[in-house]
Amino acid sequence: METARPELAQILFIDFVGFSQLFTDRQHEIKQILQSEVRSCPEYQRARESGELIVRDTGDGFAFVLRSNDPEAAPRLAVELATAFAKRDGVFVRMGINTGPVIVGVDLDGALNVTGPGINEAQRLMDCGDAGHILVGESTARSLVGLTAWSASLQDLGEHTVKHGLSLRVFRLAKDGAGSQAPLVRKSAAPEAASVVVLPLSNTSADPDNEYFSDGLAEEIINVLAKTNGLKVIARTSAFAFKGKNVDVREIARALGVAHVLEGSVRKAVNRIRIAVQLILASAGTQVWSERFDATLDDVFEVQDRIATEIASSLRITLVARRNHTPVPAAYDALLKAKHHLHQSSPEHALRARQYSEQAIALDPSYAHAYSVLAQGYFYPVMYGAANAREVLPKVREIGLQAVAADPTMGEGHAMLGLVSAYLDLDWQAAGAHFERAMADDPPSTDSRRYWAFSYLLPQGRTAEATEQLRRALEEDPLHPNLHFQLAVSLHANGQTELSLQQMNRLRDLHEGVFFPHVGLSVFHAALGDYASALAPAKRALELAPWNDVCVATYAALAMRCGLEEEGRATFARLAGNPSASLAIAAYHAMLNEWDLAFPLWELCAEARDPRLFTTLFFYRPVLKDHPRWLALMSKLGLPS
Q1: What pTM did the predictor assign?
Q2: Which stretches within 227-346 are classed as H helix?
Q3: Which of 312, 379, 552, 572 is most buried, with most CB under 10 Å away?
Q4: Among positive and negative, which fits the CA dihedral 505, 606, 403, 349?
C-alpha cells in the first residue's frame, strides 16, 4: 500500500459548465460523453500506460494529476481534450492547469487518491473562466513561456480574486484552435453571503386548486426582497424551475449561485392561512431561521412583510419597506390567480390572466400592479404571434398609462410603455425615455432590464451594452429560457458567433422540451451555412410546436436545403392560406437566400408592427447589413443600419 506523501505535480481540472442545472438524465448523458472522449484521447492513454496519471472524478468533471517532470504534459492533455469536446454538440467545458503540491495516498477502500493545495488552486483557476477557457496558473506559465511551441499561445490576464479573498495570476491558453479567447467575466468565487432563493411554497391545503395562492405568496416575498439593495434575490422563473423536483437544497443553491434557500408550505382554508417557512444555509444544510404564522387573509400582507424582514435580518441586511399600496384582500387573491395563468405562457392562459386582472382592478381601482399584469396579459400573445399588434398594442398603452397613474414609481408600467413606443410607434426616443424611467427603480426589476436590453439597446445597434445587461439579468434569473435566448441573439448580433452558439446549446440543454431553443439553433447553423447541422434541431422544434408557423417554415426550408425537397414542399404547404404567416414565409425564403421574396414580406411585417420581426432581423444583420433593401428596411423601422 502506497504511503501518503507530498509531491509536486501538474493538475488539469475540468468541469462541464452548467452541469448542476441539467436534469438527471441529461447529466448522465453528458458524463458518458466526457468519459468516452477522455478514454479515446491519445495523451490520456499515454499517461495512463506510463503510470504517471491519477484521475479523480469530481461529479461534474475530472481532476487529472500528472506525476511527470514534463512541463508540457498537462497542457498537451488539455489541448487534446478541448479539441475533442469542441466537436461534440452541446458539450461545454472549462479547464484550469496548475503546477503545485499534492498528497498522494489511498482512500478508505484502498484505492489510490490524491488531495492537496495544488488541486484546489487548479480548480480556482478554472472557476475564473467560462465555457471553452483553458486557464493556466503562474507556475505552469513560467515553465511554458520559454518553450517555442507554447509561448505564443499564452496571454497574461493579470490578477484575479478567488475563494477566501486569495489572488491568483491567471494566463489564458489558446493553441491550435483549442481554448476560447473570449474575455473573462470577473466573478465572485463563492456565493455572496447576502443571497437567497425563495422556492415555491408547498400547497398543503385540502384543495389542490389553492396552488395559485402558495405560488403567488412565494412570488410576492421574492418581489418584496428584490427591492432591497445589497441582497441578491433569484427571480421567479429560476426559483420555480425546481418546483416538484426532489433536488437537495445544496444543489439548488449551487445551480443558482446563492448561499441561502427559503422553503416552506401554505395551508389555506376559507379565510384562514397557515404559513410555515424556514431559511437554510445551503452549504451546511442548517436552519438559520424558521417560523409558523397563523393568520387571516386580511393579514397576509403583514405576514409577507414579516417573513421578508426576518430573512433580511438573518442576512444582516436592512429591508427597505416600500409598499406604496395595500390592496383589497379579494383583489389581491384575484391577482394571484391572474399571475398564475400569466406564467403558463399560452394565449388561452393569457386570456384567463386578463380576466382575473380585470376582476382585481374592479375590486381595487388603485391597484397599480394589477394594471401591469393586465398589460402583460395583452402584450404576451402579440409576442407569440397569436394577436394582432396594431389592434392590441394601443390597449397595452392605455393600461400602461393607468398603471403609472396609479403608481408613478412603478418601473414595470414604464417598461410596458417603452415596449409600445418601440414596437408600435417606432418612436425610439420615447421608448428610451420610458426604459430609462423603468431602470431608475432601485434596483430595477429583471424584466425591466431584459426589455430595455432586447427591445431598445439591441435594435439601436448598442449590442455590447445589450449583451452586458442581459448577462446581468441572467445573474438574477439564471434559468430563464427567454433570457438565455435573448443573450444568444445579442451575442450573435455582436459578432460573437462561437459564444452565441454555445449559449443557444446551453439553453437547449436546460430546456430541451421548449421549442424556441431548437428553432434558434437551426437558424444559427443556417446563418453560418451549416444546413446539415441545422436540420435536426429544426425537426425537433417542429415536433414540439407543430402549431408554430416559424417552426413549420424553418423545417420546410432546411428540408429543401438538405435535398428532402418533397418533404420540404409538403411542410411549406401547411402555411398556405394563413393570413398571419408573413413572418414565417419570409423566414422560409431567407433560409433559401431568396432575398427578393423575403424583403417584401419583412416590409409587410414592419407595416403590421409584428415585434417578432426584430428578433428575425438580428439573426440576419451580419449577413445583410450592406444590402440596399436592408438599409431601406432599417430606415422604415427608424433604426441605424
Answers
A1: 0.71
A2: 236-239, 249-256, 300-314, 329-342
A3: 552
A4: negative
